[in-house]
Amino acid sequence: MLLLLLSIIVLHVAVLVLLFVSTIVSQWIVGNGHATDLWQNCSTSSSGNVHHCFSSSPNEWLQSVQATMILSVIFSVLSLFLFFCQLFTLTKGGRFYITGIFQILAESDSGQMCSYI
């Protein structure tokens, strides 16, 4: 049972790390002097020294992707917090329904985000 709890904790932490990295990473698409991510579009001059960064386009689909990424991170953090709270307060044999619901919400948000891209 201890091994199962440890693997669940590792899974929660891995999901959080991947969500933070995918939300914060600065270059999703890299081309000739151009880099695009979720939050801004950057381009360099021909000399390669000057960066011109502009906020991402105001498309509705991009704003919905940004919102679902943030919601996914929030629900995953809440899920990990609730998991630790329930781990120490539930009686033996209790079920982690609330933690599971928040984890499902986090995954459905990130899955919904993938359908937009």
From TrEMBL:
<keyword id="KW-0325">Glycoprotein</keyword>
<dbReference type="Pfam" id="PF00822">
    <property type="entry name" value="PMP22_Claudin"/>
</dbReference>
<dbReference type="InterPro" id="IPR050579">
    <property type="entry name" value="PMP-22/EMP/MP20-like"/>
</dbReference>
<keyword id="KW-1003">Cell membrane</keyword>
<feature type="transmembrane region" description="Helical">
    <location>
        <begin position="67"/>
        <end position="90"/>
    </location>
</feature>
<comment type="function">
    <text>Might be involved in growth regulation, and in myelinization in the peripheral nervous system.</text>
</comment>
<dbReference type="InterPro" id="IPR003936">
    <property type="entry name" value="PMP22"/>
</dbReference>
<keyword id="KW-0832">Ubl conjugation</keyword>
<protein>
    <recommendedName>
        <fullName>Peripheral myelin protein 22</fullName>
    </recommendedName>
</protein>
<keyword id="KW-1133">Transmembrane helix</keyword>
<comment type="similarity">
    <text>Belongs to the PMP-22/EMP/MP20 family.</text>
</comment>
<dbReference type="InterPro" id="IPR004031">
    <property type="entry name" value="PMP22/EMP/MP20/Claudin"/>
</dbReference>
<keyword id="KW-0812">Transmembrane</keyword>
<dbReference type="InterPro" id="IPR004032">
    <property type="entry name" value="PMP22_EMP_MP20"/>
</dbReference>
<keyword id="KW-0472">Membrane</keyword>
<dbReference type="GO" id="GO:0005886">
    <property type="term" value="C:plasma membrane"/>
</dbReference>
